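Appendix B, Record 12. Input sequence as logged:
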Amino acid sequence: MLKEPTTGCLVQTGLIGSNYKISPPLKICFENLLENLERLELPSQVAAVLRSPYLQHVISCQRQRHMLQRLSLWLFQVLSAEITAEDENQQGVELLQLLINFTDFLQVNIPVCETWLADYLLTWNGLDYRPYILRIFTRCRIYQFQKLNDLILEPLRTLFFCSSVYFKCQLAYCFTELLRNYVILELPRYRGYVAMKKVRQAASVQAADHDVDDAWDPLYEYHEEHFEALQTIQSLIYYVDKVFAVGLQQERDNSLLMHLVLSFYEMVSHIHTKYNVPFTCLPCPGVVYRAVFSSNAMACSRMCSIIARYRNEYSSLKQSSEASNNMSDLSKQVTALNGYILDISNSLWRHKAFTTSKTPSVFNMPTEIVNATQVNLPNGSFSVHNHIALVGYARRFLVETQPEGKRVHPSLIRGNNRDTYLEFLKTERVDGVVDFISTFIKRSSNN
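Logged structural output:
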């Protein structure tokens, strides 16, 4: 199916007239490509574009619509014939890999591939061509969230909840990559496209105005009305947040899935300061508390680090002029963040986990229920040395610091010993807990 054009030599520029077109061979030098770029045309077999880096440069630089239409028509037909209508085979794998390499080179997905993907996902079993299908998904262009959800996200959500934990992990990673693609490539590209379109439509400015940056002219135009790209990104984050909360519950906080979920929030927690997006989104309580009170020290430490990072994120947002238009929503998020900080501080450091409080808290429950658990000193059960994920580190610390043969117990870590214990946790790479305590808790000299 994927045939290569015959190899030949480019005709020298001075030997042919400027009105003639020449077909590029498969192997040419880059200097000849530049000299003849304006007079190159695609070979009759458009499939050669997927194999030839020179033809890919021609597509990217010339941006001729008829060339893109030829390529799109061929791609849709061959994808439907080789992938949709057939079971997984080596020829299909080769085709998808070439397509992925091509879109990686362009740094943009081809709209017809997204059209095919939306159709294919309706009947996809989640097994055939999985790495390649998910990779194409991460390259999706930015659309209105409702359209993205109906065509792409909903079929994937269905597969997410009825598949193994390993599929969930792969899809969790792809959600992170999709968000990264949006904030790094798609959002700036769409903003530039909208700005360029407004300038060109203005009555006082010509289409070829030198102030218009043609770099923002997309290879494939957006065939829909203007939409809020930022709203799409925000809705995507909240959508993924809900999916992750249910997925973690379904898989009982699987460590690998938790790692990938936390990687997503590590990106979201600096989406403003690093990617200049004028908002951020907090993870829901179902994710935060599952990580903080997990039996996995990695999950507890990384969530503490994420919450500490949000402090700088919201401080920066308060000073941002773009975020000032939505201060009410920002205020609600800050209130929720303060609730997380208070709960984690009371449980890890202050020994006030189940202390009655007027403010909303995950620990707000009747005293009778707490007493019915028959746990000795329940307020300190999640402290930095009693926490189920950290008690092993506490014992190792005491074995190393106490006289040999002395019977050790986590309660020995108190007073100045706690500072030494925090330094020990740092050497053990549980530094997220240490960062949280140093960021939000003022410690006296005798603490």
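The two ends are 72 Å apart (CA to CA).
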